[in-house]
## 1
Amino acid sequence: MKIPKLTGTLSNKIKTQIKINDITIGRDFLVIAGPCSVESEEQILSAAKAVKAAGANMLRGGAYKPRSSPYSFQGLGRYGLEYLKKAGQAVDLPIITEVIDTRDVYLVSEYADVLQIGARNMQNFSLLVEVGKTKKPVLLKRGLYATIEEWLNCAEYILKEGNPNVILCERGIRTIETYTRNTLDLSAVAAVKRMTHLPVIVDPSHATGRVELIGDMSLSSIMAGCDGLEIEVHPCPGKALSDAEQQLDPEQFKKLMRRINLTRELRNLLEDNEICPE
Ligand code: PEP
Ligand code: MN
């Protein structure tokens, strides 16, 4: 396979680090948490307080939702951005939200610290060019059916426009398996970490679609060498307007954060002793 030049390690032997307020992505472990969608001012503030208290270092929430059905909740749009921004400020966390349309890139950039390109838009080349023209950090999710090569070429579109601040996110791919929503491709995480200089994070929520699998997949992702996690957390998952079956409640997230921290200590120990990666 051909690794595109700017994304591959040839152009940059130093690992990319992206500084946002107090955190440096690629050096510090990133934990993005928050609801699938911003549903109201109260809901996102309550989620923000919970994830901050548990130790997350970035708040997520979708304002523009790419839904499979046009009849499903589409997000609050500009109001969602406002509520997310206010909630982030209230708990002193940077925010990430998805942009799904080239026409919204400017507006979303005014609010978000990180722009998310969703799996369904991974190969929306005009959107990639548009976010590449901004200097905002971009989280690029792997497409539902994308090979590693296709994914890295999409990162290349952003880098080529002059935006070096790209984070890759493995969020599961479609396979013959139907028990899980997608199949988490952990080998892709370890592979892409070796092939590129970009930070790589994992979204175990969309990868599994099942609350009970999110914890173990988070820990496995850490051992695969990821630089962070993106986890859906909702104050009351049963009432969520999107992805109700894969969002942790605040108590579950708090417990998971303890397991995440312990697993990171183990991974760090292996790295410090040069046992891992080989
Ligand atoms: C999301 O993170 O809100 C989302 C829609 O995820 P994905 O693009 O990976 O399906
Ligand atoms: Mn979701």
## 2
Amino acid sequence: MSLLHNRKVLLGVSGSIAAYKSAHLVRELIKRGAEVQVVITDAAKDFVTPLTLSTLSTRPVYSAFIEEEQKTYGVWNNHVEMGLWADLMVIAPASSNTLSKMATGACDNLLTAVYLSAKCPVFVAPAMDLDMYANGATSDNLALLKERGIGIIDADFGELASGLVGKGRMAEPEAIAHHLEEYLKASLPLAGQKVLINAGPTHEHIDPVRFLGNNSSGKMGAALAAAARDLGASVHLVLGPTQATLDLHGMQVSRITSADEMLAAMLSDFAQSNLTICTAAVSDYKPASRSQHKIKKTDEGQSMVISLEKTPDILQTLGTQENRKGYLVGFALETHDGEVYAKDKLARKNADAIVLNTLGKEGVGFEGDTNEVTVYTADGKTFSFPLTSKITLGKSLLELFMNEFNLTNA
Ligand code: C5P
């Protein structure tokens, strides 16, 4: 889901030929789930009609303090209310005239009055011909606005309406929407933090068609990954073979099959990671050798023996890495004496916390959509989380780790 979802965006449109792209920008913002209120200057109406913008935004478009048809009723467009309503304001296109008014505080139209009243972050996407853009007056105005905290969405280089080629084209609507999303992302609590998670089963192949594996769905790990992503972290999920439908957008996903491949993928990113969570149900053993051909049934005897050897313990290997700088969390799945085994794993695998699922209870375990866990930390604290969906639990666990390990916006 886009970070613009449910955000209230004030879109100011000023007089530039690029105003025709504002219609597309409204669509982009709406598509990402934002509510869009357009405020347009009189000059902009020559380039794009208010009717187009109001149809696309499904709201009336405002341009004057008192619209013609409202004069009889004494109704006015309250610029202060609009300024306070918005979570974000973006002026696109921002003409040289509007930029100049913003810099000096001139307030002779509704758009500049709304801008002066806005308490939210404000962005401008300048658009003008190359010489106007290069003029010292424009660059000074932009520098001043930037100094005051206005976000500048730089103009692009390219062909301009005048036929000339240079810098001055308004950034594309997708790029403007993306810029706003990146801004919102940077203010999230885990922005700048790297989170590495493994999830799902591993398959240890006996021959090309058979393997040792388990029913792990990867849902718990994917829920933690989604929670970390939503808190602003950059997430790398190393995922074993699973058929489950998982929310994986906005994260790096490495699909692997075996424990050896999972270890390699984890080691490639571990040194950079601020928080690593091992939820994977890694197979403890793998066939000592993998047959190149499908093993045929024979007529000899009633049994066959497959010789197994241990897979690497990924959590333990990470726990003992010399380059370890981040926090490390493991999972444990026990049928009895959970607390004893969980605490043993905490010490033996050198983790900072172990999340214990107790098997045998309805709704708890690695295939379903719900889970109930207890977290034991290396500094001796215990936290219990009652039965709930893995999605909700993922969020609660991530918040716990964020607080316990002091992970903050870097
Ligand atoms: O030792 P046990 O398998 O019970 O420990 C569970 C924890 O260790 C989980 O976090 C699991 O992801 C991890 N593990 C591992 N590599 C293995 C076996 C388990 O990383 N080969």
